[in-house]
Amino acid sequence: MKVAVYYNNQDVRIENRPIPQPKSDEFLVKTKACGVCVADTMEWYLTPRAPLTLGHEAVGVVEEVGSDIHNIKVGDRVVVHHHIPCLVCEHCRRGNFTMCESFRKTHIHPGGFSEYFTASAAHAERDTLILPENVSFKAGTLVEPLACIIHAIQKAGVKAGDSVALIGTGTMGLMFIQCLKYWGVRKLVVYEMLDWRINKAHEFGAQNVWKPGNDPQAELEKVQELFQSDGADKVFIAAKDISAMKLGMNLVNKGGTVMFFATPKPEESIEIFPSHIFFNEITITSTYSANHLDTRMALDLIASGDVWADKIISHTYPIEELSDAILQTVSRQESLKCVVEFNN
Questions:
Q1: Pairing between strand 128-130 and 208-210?
Q2: Span 2-142+307-341: which CATH code?
Q3: CA 166 to CA 162: how far, in whole Å?
Q4: Is 116 left (phi over 0), alpha (psi -120 to 50) or beta?
Q5: CA-CA distance, 237 to 250, in Å (whole number)?
Q6: Helix, coil or strand: residue 35
Q7: Which of 24, 25, 37, 79 has the most CB atoms in a 10 Å sphere around its CB?
C-alpha cells in the first residue's frame, strides 16, 4: 500500500508498505478520502517528530474486522475519529473527554494519508460512525473538523439570542457561521482580511462582514453600535494571527466569553490585563479537538444539509500530491478545504 511520510511541508515521500493485518481487537479500513487540517501544515509542531504519517480526518470502507469486534462489519462506509476517551478517568467522569490521557494517546495507524489504516476495538465501540448514503466520502472528511467547531460552541455556552463576533473565515470560520445560525444566533459580526473570503462569508450567510481597522477602540464602537450593547457576548477567534487574538479580546461584552480556537506558535503571546477581566467578569477559554458526542452531531449536520460540506471542499489531490495540498492550505490563495482522495 502507498503511505505518505511527512518530513516537512515541501518534503512528503511516498513509501510502499505491506497492508497491515488487523489483530483480533482491531479493524482494517481501506481509505477513500482524508482531509488536510491546518495542523497538518504546522512545521514548528510537526518537524521535530518527523518522519511521520499524518491524516486524522479519514473516511473509508471497512475491509477486515477482528474477531473481538461486533458493532461494525466488512463493507461499512465509516468515518473513524482518531482520538477516543477511556470514559472512566477523572476527566471523562467530569465530561472533559478531550483532556483524557487515553484520548491523546489513541490514533489510527499509520495515519489517514495511507491507502489502508487500522483502528482499535475501542475506536469501533466509541467513535466510528456509519456514513449515511447521502454523505459522500469527501463530505465525511469534514466530520472531525466540524465536530471541533461544535465542541467550541458548546463549551462557550452559546444560546439563541447571543451576540457573537467571529474572527477568521477560512474553512472553520465558514462552518462556524452555519453552526451559529443553527444554534439560533442572529446577531453576528464576522471579521476577515481577504476579499475572497469576505465574499465567501456572505455566501455562507453572514450579513455583517468587516475588515478590521487599525484602531481597536473604533472597532469596539462599531460592534457596540451594531449590537446596542457593550460588546459581543461570545467572541470566537478562528484565526491563528496574534492580531486576531488582540482584536477578539477587545470586542467582548461585559460578562462575555472569549474562545481561543486557533493555535499560534508557542513563543507568540498577547498582553492580558487582569483588572479589566476582573471588573468586567470576562471568561477566557479555549478548546482542543472534539469528543464522541460532537462527532455524532457533526455527521447529523452534514447529512441534513445544515452545513454545506460540498461547498467547503475546494481542492482534491491524489496521495502523491499531498505536499501540494499542504502548501495550498498554507497559502490561503482562494482555497478552502483540501482533501486527498484515494482511487484504491
A1: unpaired
A2: 3.90.180.10
A3: 13
A4: beta
A5: 12
A6: strand
A7: 79
